[in-house]
Design brief:
By secondary structure, this protein is of the alpha+beta class. It is about 25% helix and about 30% strand. About 30% of the residues are buried.
Length: about 400
């Protein structure tokens, strides 16, 4: 198989900076080399793929263990070369500038219509992402906020339930503070923010947005700088902040708590904790929703991040030089969404059971009357009707 996927708008890193490329060729091969490098990266490529060694071109089949290959900013040696006789689908970046040279995982490679694949595979299949890009993504109906990065696709509907899910950055680095507003029932992205903002201002912003969307369940990733943002939300006494178990010996979404009045419980902590246990769960939830296409994503910014969200040595993360702030916030939202719905439904069911258990009881004697036409102030004492008002 030999397919060509045309590049729409992406750039790739080269020795001269990021440059546009024409597209990607996809080929099936019956054999390939698995090359392990000293920077902990693994490259799987065809035997004819061209690397750069001391500024000279060298075929992958001619490389040897302990050979040095050119890299962008470090010395990289070959640790192991394994020949694999097995079918594989390989990719080749084509049409990269005048020199046809690009850089992936710090390794300098030559574009010569050879086959190339790094150790990173996109978490979500590219065909699914293209479906979202071409059929579901749409421009926002408003772009608000100081920087114009608060995008809305739907205004708050006061008959719906929402959640606001945020990932916090310092506001002065290459990472971004982000949040999504998600319609819980329809699993639809209705608003999004991606920008660089002070943590205190971001906390105030989150309270404002969550309040706007019907006092939405507010979920904030609490790693590192996230605590500063959470503290601001607590100081503002926001009433629907998400809490979760602090001692995550195991993950059970039945135990997640969103009731702020139990926030003093020693086993609970404000916000969502992304750990080695929860991270695979939220990424798996993201993959499941997108495979089944049961979530509606309107943001081109989120789809762009998903195109560069890869498995790197088994860990899901952004490709080097890219960001995954929107992806992580959205993944958390999808995972917590099941919890929020369950707790909301449990509350509704509990209220129904409580109301159905209330019985109307009648009492005999002075407090009851069998005939509404009778004077309630009179009581029958034998043969006489006594007027109770004379005793008041």
């Amino acid at each position: 198989m030999n397919n060509f996927k045309k590049n729409i708008k992406y750039k790739i890193l080269t020795p001269n900076g990021y440059e546009y490329f024409s597209g990607v060729t996809v080929r099936d091969k019956d054999e390939f080399l698995r090359i392990t490098l000293s920077n902990d990266k693994i490259i799987e490529c065809s035997l004819n793929h061209i690397f750069i060694q001391n500024k000279n071109e060298v075929s992958a089949r001619d490389l040897q263990v302990f050979d040095k290959i050119d890299s962008i900013d470090s010395i990289i040696y070959i640790i192991d070369i394994e020949y694999v006789s097995n079918k594989i689908e390989l990719f080749d970046i084509i049409g990269v500038g005048d020199d046809s040279i690009f850089i992936v995982d710090d390794v300098v490679s030559h574009n010569c219509d050879c086959d190339y694949m790094t150790s990173g595979h996109t978490v979500v299949d590219s065909e699914i992402l293209m479906h979202y890009r071409e059929n579901i993504v749409k421009p926002p109906i408003s772009k608000d906020g100081i920087d114009g990065n608060y995008w809305r696709w739907e205004y708050a509907d006061y008959q719906k339930s929402y959640m606001v899910v945020a990932d916090v950055a310092r506001g002065d680095s290459k990472d971004y503070s982000t949040f999504h507003v998600i319609d819980i029932e329809d699993v639809t992205q209705v608003a999004e923010y991606r920008g660089k903002i002070d943590t205190k201002d971001f906390g105030n912003f989150l309270v404002l947005v969550a309040t706007e969307y019907n006092d939405a369940l507010l979920v904030i990733e609490n790693a590192n700088i996230g605590w500063a943002c959470i503290q601001q939300v607590i100081d503002r006494s926001y009433k629907n902040l998400f809490y979760m178990s602090k001692d995550l010996k195991y993950i059970d979404i039945e135990r997640q708590i969103t009731n702020r009045y139990r926030s003093n419980d020693s086993s609970l902590v404000a916000g969502f904790s992304t750990t080695s246990k929860t991270r695979p769960l939220i990424i798996s939830k993201l993959d499941d929703y997108l495979k089944e296409r049961t979530v509606t994503i309107h943001s081109i910014r989120l789809i762009d991040e998903l195109f560069t969200f890869i498995y790197n040595n088994g860990r899901a993360e952004a490709l080097r030089g890219y960001n995954d702030d929107l992806v992580m916030a959205f993944s958390i939202g999808l995972w917590v969404r099941d919890t929020a719905l369950r707790l909301r439904q449990e509350g509704i069911d509990l209220t129904k059971r409580t109301l159905s258990g209330i019985n109307v009881q009648t009492y005999s004697g002075v407090y009851a009357s069998s005939n509404l036409d009778e004077d309630p102030w009179k009581m029958n004492f034998g043969d006489d009707m006594e007027d109770l008002r004379r005793w008041l």
